[in-house]
Amino acid sequence: MNIHEYQAKVLFKNYGINVPNFKVISNSNETKNACEELGGSVWVVKAQVHAGGRGKGGGVIVCHTIEDAISASKKLLGSNLITPQTDSTGQPINKIIVEAGQEISKELYLGLLVDRATESITILASTEGGMDIEEVATNSPEKIIKQAINPLGKLEIKECHEVAAKIGLSLSLYDQFTSTMIGLYNIFTDNDANLIEINPLIITSNNNIIALDGKIDFDDNALYRNEEISSLRDIEQEDKKERSASEHQLNYISLDGSVGCMVNGAGLAMATMDLIEYHGGSPANFLDVGGGTTSERVAKAFEIIQSGKNVKAILVNIFGGIVRCDLIANGILQAIEKVGLTLPIVVRLEGTNAQEGLEILNKSNINIVTEADLTKAAKKIVEMAK
Ligand code: ADP
Ligand code: MG
Fold first, then answer.
1. Which of 335, 377, 328, 334 is nearest to 357 (CA)?
2. Is residue 109 annotated as part of the catalytic site, yes or no?
3. Which mutation among 19, 46, 60 tests ligand 1's pocket best, with the greatest number of atoms within 8 A of CB?
4. pLDDT at 249 (0 to 100)
5. Is 174 a catalytic residue?
6. What is the C-alpha separation between 328 and 359, in angstroms, rounded?
7. Is the dihedral of CA 286, 291, 296, 299 positive or negative?
């Protein structure tokens, strides 16, 4: 689960990490007050959306007058922000922050994540922070240092100093850097985070270290024991189709290709997507209807798949193990009866009672192409989606 920048900054502050003063507002009428209460002469108006790259998408606006801040608020609130990390519709801006402008002398990058390779929480740090960190990671990965934290201990001051030295910080900044790192580590371990990023972590012109941005992703599987964190969820920022799918115990992820896929089992779903790609197509989604699926769930899955604007054809790929293919076939027919079928469809059934299942579909008067062989099914659907 992701949270907003302003929520991350509240956590940062509670854990002793310096952040700029800011006000959260949801109505542009509140901008003037916010600027006045913050004081100073530079304000930064920032869209609160669950996506990075806001600066590049026009969602971070530096303002030198209150009038500018008001028009920036008006421009952002109520619109959608499209960034290099969103889809073409963008994310809705329901809240913004007005933040005290900072005098930046250096932008660093500091992150913590669970590194599966070393099975430990790992520090990522770089002197090349800021809006082009992705480019740094691709073109000069040596500029990002990586250090695993001993999973059996706590983060030690010594380790923080090592990281500070590796990125060449001046000695006068070691204490501030260390308390930032320890705050981050404690947020991470206290709340079951998967990833925390401060980009940029700035050094100001008067030598203070401040977190200017904050991104935190929490482990969904641990939310049950982190009530306060759970309450930070903003469902407005989540994909509507993914949300409705999860309410029906469907594992659904939107993708940007044209072949809708309905599959039972995550492994089979991955294999199906690979095969579609291999034959020149591209999947519009990842949808796993689960093991003991019901016709209601199949119907919901159809509804969700067909509502995707980019979907041109649907491939159903079911491997009947415990589930019998004849039940699945009936489920598919019931689903189509209920929600209608507006797209070409190929159904591949294999496993328990596959023959019976295919016969049921072939006998129906609905225009379903059946196929027992997965490769042939994939080739057919790629053709149809064209
Ligand atoms: P994103 O990463 O989504 O683009 P950031 O919060 O990192 O958004 O802001 C982008 C850039 O805008 C930062 O790298 C920094 O240069 C500038 N910026 C952001 N907040 C402030 C601020 N309070 N004062 C001065 N500059 C800022
Ligand atoms: Mg940033």
1. 328
2. yes
3. 60
4. 84
5. no
6. 12
7. positive
The mean pLDDT of 77-101, rounded to a whole number, is: 95
49 class by beta-carbon count within 10 Å (0-12 exposed, 13-18 middle, 19+ buried): buried
Question: Looking at ligand 1, which atom is closest to the CA of residue 103?
Answer: 25
Residue 277, helix vs strand vs coil: helix
Neighbours of ion ligand 2 (CB under 5 A): 199, 213
By the 8 A CB rule, do 105 and 203 touch? yes
**Residue 137 and residue 83: Cα distance in Å, rounded?**
19
Structural domains of the chain ordered from first start: 1-19+103-237 (3.30.470.20), 21-101 (3.30.1490.20), 239-385 (3.40.50.261)
Is 57's C-beta closer than 6 angstroms to any atom of ligand 1? Answer: no
Query: Mean pLDDT across the stretch 137-159?
Result: 92
How far, in Å, CA of 368 to CA of 205, rounded?
67
Q: Which residues contact 306 (CB under 8 A, 6 or more apart)?
A: 260, 314, 339, 340, 341, 342, 343
Mean pLDDT of all residues belonging to the chain = 93
User: What would the pLDDT profile of 95-131 be if each residue is shown by its tens digit?
Assistant: 999 999 999 999 999 999 999 998 999 999 999 999 8
Structure tokens at 207: 């030598």
**How many beta carbons lie within 10 A of that of residue 261, not counting itself?**
25
pLDDT in tens, 271-310: 999 999 999 999 999 999 887 777 778 888 888 998 888 9
